[in-house]
């Protein structure tokens, strides 16, 4: 069938920001708006609810970022893009199933696992990946309901925004998180935490941090948590001076850090919890006893003048009972799609999926973190999606290949396979239910909460399907 006679059928795998932006940008493209191309887009997610990283990756006390959901919500509310939740690529549907019904498939599955850190002791009880902890506190349906929060002293490895997120959540008083949508089990878990000290370690210097200014400044907003810095870590080389002079973000953050350092020297620190920021230290070994974390051995580094570091051979041991590595996320391999195991991305050229010979696999595309790796703020994903969908539309002449391109038959097909999929109407039901749970509970000031998340997968499905 030719492009003139039927809509181009596009499947997007992953209903996080990357997938929704890609779907939205197709509908807003010149080709579609001018009527030259008609499209019919279905967006899939393995979870019963949409919004991916925003629902399950953004910290609950970041309502501004969570607010992106409002924009994504509006896109799916229009009704021209269908949502199928609780449908997993590689389990419920394989590539042949999708090719039968769609002309093009865009993978937007993100990067949800922790990058590995191959040091001694990493498998000890009490050593965790930040991504797993984030999934727990964000009420991810596939994670256990309890998290072992029994450490008084905690190490967080990494100097990116994820390290800041988890250090903030670990050090905050649970009652101060009740204004957010955290589920009951997360509140109870955090409430029981005996934590007094959270140590965040960066392997490079203060001028090489990967935090962003707003997120760094926010650390000082936590009630009853003092920030502790160490004068000896404030070592600057030529590359640091240049970064401070030429990069406004670095300059701003340096001002924040040095102000905190001065304030700390001048004032008294009386909070019951402390958040320490250490620089120029690399994790060397996690120390254990009886299979449990009892400390971390860090190697002190010095700057190499070019923005990098050299180990000094000098080691410092810190007593900690838990270690969280926040050293970056990593994308997982998908069945039947080329994968670069070093980078954790789908093999692609500007969003066109390629095979081992570098040839474009017709009809397959990638966008977001699974395309370019887990870097950049959520907004950067839009540019990425634009590049991918531009190529898809350029290729469209050769894309009309689906054998069963009728959109209506697809839900029958899912029914025939016994898949308990959720829909956009279902999300509205779950959304209303979570808001009602919020209205019925109270924060520490006695005010009703905006939302309380449903965590259990079956319960999410039942509510969404109105069962
Ligand atoms: P990231 O920004 O890439 O930071 C990773 C950190 O881990 C870096 O400090 C890196 O140090 C360090 N690291 C890597 N390997 C290490 C090792 N072997 N030993 C010690 N340290 C190591 O990654 P991220 O924090 O996962 O964040 C991912 C993206 O999401 C970023 O773009 C981030 O801004 C964004 N994000 C934004 C927010 C927000 O609130 N706006 C929240 C969360 C995430 P080097 O620099 O030396 O490599």
From TrEMBL:
<dbReference type="GO" id="GO:0004324">
    <property type="term" value="F:ferredoxin-NADP+ reductase activity"/>
</dbReference>
<keyword id="KW-0560">Oxidoreductase</keyword>
<feature type="binding site">
    <location>
        <position position="53"/>
    </location>
    <ligand>
        <name>FAD</name>
    </ligand>
</feature>
<keyword id="KW-0285">Flavoprotein</keyword>
<keyword id="KW-0521">NADP</keyword>
<protein>
    <recommendedName>
        <fullName>ferredoxin--NADP(+) reductase</fullName>
        <ecNumber>1.18.1.2</ecNumber>
    </recommendedName>
</protein>
<feature type="binding site">
    <location>
        <begin position="376"/>
        <end position="378"/>
    </location>
    <ligand>
        <name>FAD</name>
    </ligand>
</feature>
<dbReference type="InterPro" id="IPR036188">
    <property type="entry name" value="FAD/NAD-bd_sf"/>
</dbReference>
<feature type="binding site">
    <location>
        <position position="369"/>
    </location>
    <ligand>
        <name>FAD</name>
    </ligand>
</feature>
<feature type="binding site">
    <location>
        <position position="376"/>
    </location>
    <ligand>
        <name>NADP(+)</name>
    </ligand>
</feature>
<feature type="binding site">
    <location>
        <position position="18"/>
    </location>
    <ligand>
        <name>FAD</name>
    </ligand>
</feature>
<feature type="domain" description="FAD/NAD(P)-binding">
    <location>
        <begin position="9"/>
        <end position="186"/>
    </location>
</feature>
<feature type="binding site">
    <location>
        <position position="215"/>
    </location>
    <ligand>
        <name>NADP(+)</name>
    </ligand>
</feature>
<dbReference type="InterPro" id="IPR023753">
    <property type="entry name" value="FAD/NAD-binding_dom"/>
</dbReference>
<comment type="similarity">
    <text>Belongs to the ferredoxin--NADP reductase type 1 family.</text>
</comment>
<feature type="binding site">
    <location>
        <begin position="159"/>
        <end position="162"/>
    </location>
    <ligand>
        <name>NADP(+)</name>
    </ligand>
</feature>
<dbReference type="Pfam" id="PF07992">
    <property type="entry name" value="Pyr_redox_2"/>
</dbReference>
<dbReference type="InterPro" id="IPR055275">
    <property type="entry name" value="Ferredox_Rdtase"/>
</dbReference>
<feature type="binding site">
    <location>
        <begin position="203"/>
        <end position="204"/>
    </location>
    <ligand>
        <name>NADP(+)</name>
    </ligand>
</feature>
<keyword id="KW-0274">FAD</keyword>
<dbReference type="InterPro" id="IPR021163">
    <property type="entry name" value="Ferredox_Rdtase_adrenod"/>
</dbReference>
């Amino acid at each position: 069938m030719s492009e003139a006679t039927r809509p181009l059928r596009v499947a997007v795998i992953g209903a996080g920001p990357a997938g929704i932006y890609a779907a939205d940008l197709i509908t807003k493209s010149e080709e579609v708006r001018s009527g030259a191309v008609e499209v019919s887009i279905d967006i899939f997610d393995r979870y019963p609810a949409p919004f991916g990283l925003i629902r399950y990756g953004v910290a609950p006390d970041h309502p501004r970022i969570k607010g992106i959901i409002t924009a994504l919500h509006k896109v799916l509310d229009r009704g021209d893009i269908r949502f199928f939740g609780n449908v997993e690529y590689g389990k419920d549907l394989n590539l042949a199933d999708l090719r039968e019904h769609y002309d093009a498939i865009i993978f937007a599955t993100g990067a949800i696992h922790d990058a590995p850190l191959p040091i001694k002791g990493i498998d000890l009880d009490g050593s965790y990946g930040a991504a797993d902890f984030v999934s727990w506190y964000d009420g991810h349906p596939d994670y256990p309901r309890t998290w072992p929060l029994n450490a008084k002293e905690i190490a967080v490895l990494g100097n990116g925004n994820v390290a800041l997120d988890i250090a903030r959540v670990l050090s905050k008083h649970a009652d101060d998180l009740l204004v957010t949508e955290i589920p009951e089990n997360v509140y109870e878990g955090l409430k029981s935490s005996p934590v007094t000290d959270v140590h965040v370690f960066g392997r490079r210097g203060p001028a090489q941090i990967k935090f962003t200014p707003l997120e760094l400044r926010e650390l000082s907003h936590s009630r009853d948590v003092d920030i502790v810095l160490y004068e000896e870590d404030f070592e600057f080389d030529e590359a640091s001076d240049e970064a401070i002079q030429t990069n406004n973000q670095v300059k701003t953050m340096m001002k924040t850090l040095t102000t905190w350092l001065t304030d700390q020297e001048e004032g008294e620190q009386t909070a019951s919890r402390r958040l320490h920021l250490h620089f120029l230290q690399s994790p060397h070994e996690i120390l254990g006893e009886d299979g449990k974390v009892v400390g971390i051995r860090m190697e002190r580094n010095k700057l190499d003048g070019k923005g990098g570091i050299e180990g000094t051979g000098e080691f410092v041991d810190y007593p900690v009972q838990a270690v969280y590595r926040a050293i970056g996320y990593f994308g997982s391999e998908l069945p039947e799609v080329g994968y670069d195991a070093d980078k954790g991305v789908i093999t692609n050229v500007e969003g066109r999926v390629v095979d081992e010979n570098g040839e474009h696999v017709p009809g397959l595309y990638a966008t977001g973190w699974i395309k370019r790796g887990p870097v950049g703020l959520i907004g950067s994903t839009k540019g990425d999606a634009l590049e991918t969908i531009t190529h898809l539309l350029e290729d469209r002449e050769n894309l009309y290949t689906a054998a069963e391109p009728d959109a209506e038959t697809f839900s029958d097909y899912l029914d025939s396979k016994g898949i308990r999929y959720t829909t956009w109407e279902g999300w509205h039901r779950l959304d209303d239910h979570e808001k009602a749970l919020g209205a019925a509970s109270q924060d520490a000031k006695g005010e009703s909460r905006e939302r309380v998340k449903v965590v259990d997968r079956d319960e999410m499905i039942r509510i969404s399907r109105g069962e």
